[in-house]
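go over whats below:
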Amino acid sequence: MTAAHTPGAHMAAEIATQPETWARAEQMRAEQALLPARGERVAVIGCGTSWFMAQSYAVLRERAGQGVTDAFAASEAFVDRGYDAVVALTRSGTTSEVLELVGDLTAAGDAPRVVGVIGDPESPLVDLVDDAVLLPFADEQSVVQTRFATTALALFRASLGERLDTAIADAATAVAADLDPELVAAEQTSYLGMGWTVGIAHEAALKMREASQSWTESYPSMEYRHGPISIAAPGRVTWQFGPSPEGLSAQVAATGARFETSDLDPLADLVRAQRVALARALARGLDPDQPRNLTRSVILEP
C-alpha cells in the first residue's frame, strides 16, 4: 500500500464491480465446460473464503442432479475416495495447503483430474492442474476477498444451468442501496443459511471478522436454535440468507434482537453484508485492504 492509500478503497471498488464480473463469468461457456461433467464424483477444495464457496457449489451441484460433490478445507481433505475430479478454488494460486494437496494428487498414479479455478494466471498452481479456469478480471488488491469468491460461485452456478439475470440485477441493487446504520453498529451478528446458503453465511461472518475485527458467528439456520440463539439480544442481529425456517423470525424477535432478511438473491445479499463489513471497519478506523494479522495468501514455511 502507498502512503496515499485511502483505507478500504480497494475493497469498496471491488465490491462495486461484482455485477459486471458476475455477468462476465456467466458468459464463460468454454471455461464452464472444463468443470466436472454431469455424473462425475467430485471433491471441491479451498481455504477460508474459497472453502465456503466450495460448500455452496457442492450443494448446488448435488441438488442439480450432477453427481456426488463434497467440499473440503484443503488441509482436511479426503480425496482418495474414488473421485473422478477435484476442483481447487483459490484466488492467489499460492496457498500452501492447496499447492501441497494438488501436487500430491498430480504426482500420484491414476489420480483424478484436477481443475483449478484461479484468480492469478501467473501463479504456480496453473501449471500443476490438468485444466485451469482463470478469472484474472475478478482478482483483487484488497486482502479481504469479495468479488473473486462471488464471481467463482457465479461461474459455478452458470455451469449448472442457472440463469443469473436476477442475481446480477439484485447485486446492482445491493451495491447502490443505502445501508441501515443499525446493521453497521450492531454489537454482534449471527449469519444463517440453509442448503447452499450455509456457505454464504459462513463467508459473511468471515468478512465481518476480517474487515472489522467484530464478533460474528454463522450456522445452518435450523442449528441456530440448538444453542446459539442464546446470544441473541437487543442491539444484536440475526441475518438470514434466503428463506428462513418457519417460526425463526418470531423466536429471534422475542429475544429483542433484529432478524434481518432480504428478497435479494442470497449471493447479492452477501454483497450487502460485504458493504456492512466495510462500513463497520471504516467506522472503527480500520483498513480492510490490509487487515490485522492477515496476508493475501497463506504461505507456510517448509
About this structure: The chain has two domains: 9-159, 173-283. The beta strands are 42-46, 69-73, 85-90, 113-118, 131-134, 188-193, 216-220, 236-241, 258-260.
